[in-house]
Amino acid sequence: MSDNDILLEVENLKIHFPLYGGLLGHKVTGTVKAVDGVSFQVRRGETLGVVGESGCGKSTTGLGVLRMVEPTEGRVILDGTDLTVLDQKALRKYRRKVQMVYQDPFGALDPRMRVMDIIGEPLLIHRLHQDKQAYKERVHGLLERVGLNPNMADRYPHQFSGGQRQRIGIARALAAEPDLIICDEPVSALDVSIQAQVINLLEDLQDEFGLTYLFIAHDLAVVKHICDRIMVMYLGHVVEETSRDELYDNPRHPYTRALLSAIPVPDPDAEASREFDPSLDGEIPSPLNPPTGCTFHTRCQYAHEACRTVKPRLRETGDGGHKVACHLYDPEVSDVRAEDVMTDRLLAVG
Ligand code: SF4
After folding, report:
1. Beta strands 47-51 and 98-101, pairing class
2. Is 189 part of any domain?
3. Which of 4, 18, 36, 151 has the most CB atoms in a 10 Å sphere around its CB?
4. 305 CA → ligand 1 middle, Å
5. 49 inside domain
6. Which domain CATH number covers 243?
7. Which pLDDT band, with edges at 50, 70 and 90, does 277 fall under?
8. Cα–Cα–Cα angle for 50, 98, 16, nearest 5°?
């Protein structure tokens, strides 16, 4: 892969939030390590899925890329430029290149604005239109492109269904002519039938405009069809990263395997007799006071002595760049081997 193929490179990103307490609330009493040393690359035109339960740091990672929350440490390199060192004025140019589609389309759209103004706002901010007529035509064209009637431009967000509102959010993101769109749980709030339509739309737009996506989701069922590669996060760390097919065919990290076992199976008989991995039953530990060693050890059914004290490194295991952070795959740390303790009993990947 040449440097030119890489659109986004994130190096050792840390986003820590101080917690204030004490009598006057001015004293730092703790630190929430929402993102704690995350590195990844996204190639031009690909979709990288970022998956994990609520609180794993996936959305904060997306916000950190855009500097909508300031990174504590690390670099975010977009198209060769380190965004973390730019001042606000210089950052604006790059903000146009990276747009966001949010989970809650209703919350993300200003209820007092007409759709014409919602979609047209990026054209005004980034001066992407020539005159009033061109502005109107561009908004109408974007509405059509996302499958909505241009006549709807004078309506308000509450006059649309959830799926239509998400299409408006996508049209607004497209208006800025971005290179990268961060899709933060874009279909989680929608009915299953509508989810597929929105995912198909995102795929069509990617083909047409050569877009690159960072696709954030809380379960592995949603990302299966749209992502080229998937990165699984747990408590602010990446625990596994590989191609989509490799992840579903050969999941390695116990957490990934637990997430896969939770995907519903379409066959009702198979669903009724399915075994769930018990790891996900337990509470996610607080990022304010994460467990020592492997942060997943308090829920992992394969946890052994080394897991409680030694932090696993994200390292390549086998061919094809399959990365895993687990001692079961690191003979330098532990002699407990994955092949000796794991079975495929719990995996029910449809
Ligand atoms: Fe489980 Fe240990 Fe691997 Fe962590 S390092 S996932 S606790 S086996």
Report:
1. unpaired
2. yes
3. 36
4. 10
5. yes
6. 3.40.50.300
7. confident
8. 55
Distance between Cα 48 and ligand 1 center (Å): 24
**For residue 43, how far is its CA from the centre of ligand 1 (angstroms)?**
30
Question: Rounded to whole angstroms, how far apart are CA atoms 126 and 123?
Answer: 5
List CB contacts of 26: < 8 A, sequence separation 6 or more. 20
Ligand 1 pocket, 303 CB below 6 A? yes
159 within some domain: no
Number of domain units in the chain: 1
Sign of the dihedral through C-alpha 38, 294, 263, 346: positive
56 located within any domain: yes
Q: Cα angle at 184 between 183 and 187, to 5 degrees?
A: 85
- DSSP state letter for 168: H
Which residue do the tokens 């919602």 mark?
A: 118
Give the residue numbers spanning the domain of 222: 3-97+178-341
**Residues 180-195, mean pLDDT to the nearest whole number:** 92
pLDDT in tens, 288-340: 899 999 999 999 999 999 999 999 999 998 778 999 999 999 999 999 999 89
**pLDDT higher than 60, residue 103:** yes
